[in-house]
Amino acid sequence: MADNNQDKTMDKIVSLAKRRGFIFQSSEIYGGLSSAWDYGPMGVELKNRIQRFWWREMTQLHDNIVGLDAAIMMHPRVWEASGHVENFHDPMVDCKNCKNRFRADHIDLDAGCPVCGVSGQFTEPREFNLMFKTNMGPIHDENSVVYLRPETAQGIYVNYKNVVQTSRVKIPFGIAQVGKAFRNEIVTKNFIFRTCEFEQMEMQFFVKPGDDETWFEYWMKKRMAYYEKIGIRMENLHFHQHGPDELAHYAKDAYDIEYKFPFGWKELEGIHNRTDFDLSRHSEYSKKDLTYLDEETRERFLPYIVETSAGLTRSLLMVLCDAYEEEQVGEGDVRTVLRFHPELAPITVGVFPLVKKDGLAELAKEIEMELREDYATFYDQSGAIGRRYRRQDEIGTPFCVTIDYQTKDDNTVTLRFRDSMEQIRVSRSELSALIRSHIKSYKRVSS
């Protein structure tokens, strides 16, 4: 067996992502655009499935969480109230020798440049705002400036009162949102881990002051359990608590769920106790009353907020890294496989005729159309059957169905399982239900 941790490198994962249609460099035919990526046929399916799994987990499975989709561009006063105009910036330095730019708080300014090694060539640190500016309207002046949102949370806060008035929710309750955010990151690296354009999956949970610590603990446990549910190996996850120097200006307490990427432990999701900072600031800046009236006690208060904020694109990278394995399956034969949870896999079932002749192709296509009603399917009739299996292994397809001459005799097919490579004979009439049963009872088997 290959050592999975040793062999799992970003180079291999990036290569597979391009080769199998998961992720492409944006504008590649023009030389590419730094920190921008396009999601190919496999990538967009994987991303959408992660999003749907998260959305179901956060809304459908809770009776006190509702959804929202706020606009990307918002009134500029929103970002003044949130503190982004004042606080959302990084100290940057340039190396005069090699012209590379770095965050001043990420390097030793007294040592040599991390790229060229030359000492004493850093510029003085300069503050660099991370928000993208644009203009709304025909005249471009200071009055037309708006920002592309650097986070999705503020859209939830400014709509909190609308949700309370229209959805009949009562505290404690949550508002969930998935959407694009934009940060003018100068230092981007590690493939899609840190980019200028990304997607967030956030849920803001509104609670009564005094109940915040209880709910904070609840959501820490819930969010960690979610990753186990989607098949991530728990030894690759841990909590990191923010120390006093790390806490954001709005936070009473904060933990990150970190994942062990090939390039080290990095933040995957933040869980923050934001107290009433956000609603009090928006109430102050908008001059609107954002207090909540408890109809039973007739008490008014500004809710505290417990936030869970995960990166969708970063989650996709985690799923790719965690699923990637190489295993020895024969002398000199190494199989590359993506062990996705079946509910996340871009394709659920591959369907193959053993050969193209004697009506097997037509019969296989008929079965594929039946399965398409319930699953994402892929039909392939070219190449040796073993090669077709390997192609599906590389994109993480959990099940393959082969139609052969016996199918014509007794209406049975061969069902192959990706993780174990086991093959069983099953009746065509029972095929769909059996696949569904295996998805529901799925437990990851690693090499």
UniProtKB/TrEMBL annotation:
- Database matches in Pfam families: HGTP_anticodon (PF03129), tRNA-synt_2b (PF00587)
GO BP terms, alphabetized: diadenosine tetraphosphate biosynthetic process; glycyl-tRNA aminoacylation
What name does this protein carry?
Answer: Glycine--tRNA ligase
Could you say which residues bind substrate here? 103, 151, 198-202, 307-311
Q: Where in the cell is it found?
A: Cytoplasm
Query: What function does the entry list?
Result: Catalyzes the attachment of glycine to tRNA(Gly).
The reply on keyword Iron-sulfur is no
Q: Where does ATP bind?
A: 183-185, 193-198, 267-268, 311-314
Q: Which residues form the Aminoacyl-transfer RNA synthetases class-II family profile domain?
A: 11-342
Q: Organism's domain of life? A: Bacteria
As recorded in Swiss-Prot or TrEMBL, the protein's gene is named glyQS
